[in-house]
């Protein structure tokens, strides 16, 4: 069975992985998000829930 022979497929897998990690990934990571995350501090204290049975 040829699919059990790792000789040609291992090189193809390595070349694909290196292509992704060295060429494609830096280009994808260079994009900036339109809304950068900011830390929001909550200044209001939440009010407790008015339970009817208390």
Automatic annotation (TrEMBL):
Keywords: ATP synthesis, CF(0), Hydrogen ion transport, Ion transport, Membrane, Mitochondrion, Transmembrane, Transmembrane helix, Transport
A GO MF term: proton transmembrane transporter activity
Entry's transmembrane regions: 6-24
Main location: mitochondrion
Cellular component terms (Gene Ontology): mitochondrial membrane; proton-transporting ATP synthase complex
UniProt record, GO biological process: proton motive force-driven ATP synthesis
Subcellular location: Mitochondrion membrane
Membrane topology of this protein: Single-pass membrane protein
UniProt xrefs under Pfam families: ATP-synt_8 (PF00895)
Similarity remark: Belongs to the ATPase protein 8 family.
Protein name: ATP synthase complex subunit 8
Organism: Argusianus argus
Gene coding for it: ATP8
């Amino acid at each position: 069975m040829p699919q059990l022979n790792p000789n040609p497929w291992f090189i193809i897998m390595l070349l694909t992985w290196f292509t992704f990690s060295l060429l494609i990934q830096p280009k994808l990571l260079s994009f900036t998000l339109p809304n950068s995350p900011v830390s929001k501090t909550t200044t209001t204290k939440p009010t407790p829930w008015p339970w009817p049975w208390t």
